[in-house]
Design a protein that fits this description.
This protein is of the alpha/beta class. It is 46% helix and 14% strand. The chain has 13 helices and 9 strands. The longest helix is centred in the last third of the chain and has 23 residues. The structure holds norvaline. The site of norvaline (NVA) has 10 residues, from helix 7.
Length: 307
């Protein structure tokens, strides 16, 4: 059996992504139906960066799948410092049925996948956050009834992990993605090229629009993320350049009347999102946070089945 990993959004074909999202919806309705880790087998949740949603949602979800969630503190394990990634991976592979890893460089998780004999799931790297995108798509579907063809506008740091994952993962689902970011903070051309190739099959599109009002115009979904991702510095300069991209009620007035607001959280009120906008759309935001559990259960179950 080939071991499958989920390292970036486009590791799933459009049909596979749909299969995972359907499974996530089914699991939300019937949380204890699927038991791929019955035994219980253990699943490692290894984190090198701060976490709340990731550790809680994986932990609760793995338990619902009949497994034993095993938190591994990256500060203690010191992957790549105390021990090579290859050795850590080969040790973990002898003990657990899958590994979810939150780390920095994408190359680190790719190296882990190269040595792993169990599925590896990206629980956020500097480049991607694909589990969040599955939760985002599940939430959009719940609130809009469908996903393909909707216009999704993202504001702020267009060069971070969330922007990359929105471009790849949402175009896979056939959405029209607008990344609204200042010069110097656009997604890399290679990301846009990958997303556009996927869009040829799904009908999804991605464009970069510097003018925030034009990017919000007629949008179905408005989305943002912190201006300072974990591990980044230069907060003051970032706040200066991203300020025009703040999701305020003024920006919302350009979107459709029934537009929803999304945020992967944690949120910084008065910075990337205004307090009143966040509170008005809190239901959707916290549905999205809940859906991390269902979406991650679905991807773990999909990967546990192998290819
Ligand atoms: N871009 C953010 C996402 C947090 C879930 C970060 O990497 O810190």
């Amino acid at each position: 059996m080939t071991v499958r990993h989920f390292l970036a959004d486009d590791d799933l074909t459009p049909a596979e992504q749909e299969q995972v999202l359907n499974l996530a919806a089914e699991m939300k309705a019937e949380p204890f139906k699927y038991r791929p880790f019955e035994g219980p087998q253990s699943v490692a949740i290894l984190t090198d960066k701060p976490t709340l949603r990731t550790q809680v949602s994986f932990h609760a979800g793995i338990a619902e799948l009949g497994g034993n969630p095993m938190l591994v503190d990256g500060n203690l394990a010191q992957v790549g410092v105390r021990e090579t990634i290859a050795d850590v991976t080969r040790v973990l592979s002898r003990h657990v049925a899958a590994i979810a890893w939150r780390t920095g460089a994408q190359a680190r998780i790719e190296e882990m996948a190269a040595y792993a004999s169990v599925p590896v799931v990206n629980a956020l790297t500097d480049d991607y956050h694909p589990c969040q995108i599955l939760a985002c798509l599940q939430t959009i579907t719940e609130h809009k009834g469908h996903r393909a063809g909707l216009t999704f506008s993202y504001f702020g740091d267009g060069a971070n992990n969330m922007a990359n994952s929105y471009a790849l993962g949402l175009v896979t689902a056939g959405l029209h993605v607008r990344i609204s970011a200042p010069a110097g903070f656009h997604p890399e051309q290679a990301i846009l090229d990958r997303a556009r190739r996927i869009g040829e099959a799904t009908g999804g599109t991605v464009e970069v629009i510097e003018d925030p009002q034009a990017a919000a115009d007629g949008a179905d979904v408005i989305c943002t993320d912190t201006w300072v991702s974990m591990g980044q510095d230069g907060a003051e300069e970032r706040e200066r350049v991203f300020r025009p991209y703040s999701v305020t009620s003024d920006l919302m007035s350009h979107a459709k009347d029934d537009a929803i607001v999304m945020h992967c959280l944690p949120a910084y009120r008065g910075k990337e999102i205004a307090e009143d906008v966040l509170e008005k759309h809190a239901q959707v935001l916290f549905d999205e946070a809940e859906n991390r559990r269902h979406a991650q259960k679905a991807i773990l179950t999909f990967l546990a089945q192998g290819a």
